[in-house]
């Protein structure tokens, strides 16, 4: 499929972006960022890019990425960065690489603005987003935000606390350059990590409906890691694997209570591991038919 990525600037194009938001985050008009806000942002350093495909000999906008300039604070004072606020692709055009292409174009434009950091948030239980953000784009994360947007009203988010990973995309690093290059390495699989002796700290088992149930067992391991770092000079494990559901949207639709349990258990795990100096560096899947998804966390790396 021919995909064109273009900057969007005109009011008509902004209205199309409003419409995509309505289709992707159905059910709540108040969650839509309106055209006038998009225009104000792009006139002052914001970036809005659309993904176009041919549809009956006409170009159709089927996805977009939107962000605006912001600040972060360092011991040497405030520094500028890009805050990527929304990325969306219409459901029927997903898994074709459009999300990746939009983020790649955003990366180019932000570098052109002279910035070195892009941040955004996503639900850590959404494994498609995790695979795109962490594995394909090379973003990293050590910040867990509890219920950051409060109670959201759209169909994707309603019923659950809006906990998010805030990821850092250090756009000039070798890690990111390499993952975006045309000769990027093939993503690693679960076996690469298991063969290297890396432990899954919360292996799940399926309930009778075939959905994975979160396990609590790992609180002992997390306590152990805390003790190691607090009271001794011994090194905690260099890497750990944390399991999350492979299809959280399906699980949530089938069993909201189970989705809430996953939210609560993984919140505890990630908060404890980030506090203990772990950083999310990869996201892998098992290749078996009983597909499982895992974050890879590495000890003691800075966000770079
Ligand atoms: C997140 C989103 C923008 C991704 O767009 P997309 O065009 O499907 O993304 P891509 O095709 O570039 O990448 C998705 C990757 O995830 C993989 N994937 C699909 N389902 C997956 C799953 N359940 N677990 C892990 N990976 C999965 C795809 O195979 C693809 O990888 P590949 O290119 O190596 O095959 C799209 O799913 C979306 O609009 N979601 C709803 C809105 C949203 O969550 N936005 C982001 C937060 S603001």
Keywords:
304 residues, alpha+beta, Aminopeptidase, 2 domains, seven-stranded mixed β-sheet, globular, binds coenzyme A
**For the report, how would you describe the main beta sheet?**
7 strands, mixed
CATH architecture group name of the largest domain: 3-Layer(aba) Sandwich
**Mean pLDDT over the full residue set:** 92
Q: Could you list the spans in which at least 5 consecutive residues all have pLDDT below 50?
A: none
Q: What's this entry about, in short?
A:
With about 300 residues, this protein is α+β, with helices and mostly antiparallel strands. The protein is built from 9 helices and 13 strands.
Describe the structure.
The chain is α+β, with helices and mostly antiparallel strands and 304 residues long. 30% of the residues are buried. The longest helix has 20 residues, at 256-275. Helix 1 packs across helix 2 and helix 8 (248-254) packs across helix 9 (256-275). The chain has helices at residues 11-24, 35-42, 98-112, 127-136, 174-180, 190-195, 219-231, 248-254, 256-275; strands at 3-7, 47-55, 58-74, 77-89, 117-122, 140-145, 164-170, 199-200, 205-206, 212-213, 239-244, 278-285, 293-299. The protein is globular and about 60 Å long. It folds into two domains: 3-180, Gcn5-related N-acetyltransferase (GNAT) (Aminopeptidase, 3-Layer(aba) Sandwich), CATH 3.40.630; 190-299, no CATH class. A seven-stranded mixed beta sheet has the order 1-2-3-4-5-7-6, with helices on both faces. Strands 8-11-13-12 form a four-stranded mixed beta sheet. Strands 9-10 form a two-stranded antiparallel ribbon. It contains nine helices and 13 strands. The model has no long low-confidence stretch (mean pLDDT 92). Helices cover 33% and strands 30% of the residues. It binds coenzyme A.
């Amino acid at each position: 499929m021919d995909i064109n990525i273009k900057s969007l600037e005109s009011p008509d194009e902004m209205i199309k972006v409003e419409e995509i938001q309505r289709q992707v985050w159905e059910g709540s008009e108040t969650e839509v960022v309106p055209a006038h806000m998009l225009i104000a942002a792009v006139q002052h350093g914001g970036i809005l890019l659309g993904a176009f495909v041919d549809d009956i000999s006409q170009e159709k906008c089927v996805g977009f990425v939107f962000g605006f300039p912001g600040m972060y604070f360092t011991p040497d004072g405030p520094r500028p960065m890009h805050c990527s606020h929304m990325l969306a692709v219409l459901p029927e055009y997903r898994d074709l690489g459009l999300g990746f292409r939009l983020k790649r174009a955003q990366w180019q434009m932000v570098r052109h603005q002279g910035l070195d950091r892009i941040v955004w948030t996503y639900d850590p239980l959404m494994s498609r987003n995790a695979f795109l953000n962490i594995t394909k784009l090379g973003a990293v994360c050590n910040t867990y935000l509890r219920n950051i947007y409060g109670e959201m009203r759209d169909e994707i988010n309603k019923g659950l606390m809006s906990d998010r990973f805030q990821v850092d995309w250090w756009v000039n690093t070798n890690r990111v350059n390499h993952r975006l290059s045309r000769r990027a390495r093939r993503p690693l699989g679960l076996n690469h990590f298991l063969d290297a002796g890396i432990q899954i700290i919360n292996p799940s088992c399926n309930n009778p409906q075939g959905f994975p149930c979160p396990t609590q067992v790992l609180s002992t391991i997390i306590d152990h890691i805390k003790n190691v770092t607090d009271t001794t000079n011994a090194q905690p494990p260099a890497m750990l694997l944390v399991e999350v559901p492979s299809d959280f949207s399906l699980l949530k639709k089938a069993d909201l209570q189970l989705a809430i349990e996953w939210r609560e258990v993984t919140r505890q795990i990630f908060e404890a591991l980030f506090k203990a100096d772990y950083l999310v560096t990869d996201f892998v899947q098992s290749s078996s038919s009983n597909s499982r998804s895992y974050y890879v966390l590495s000890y003691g790396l800075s966000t770079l």
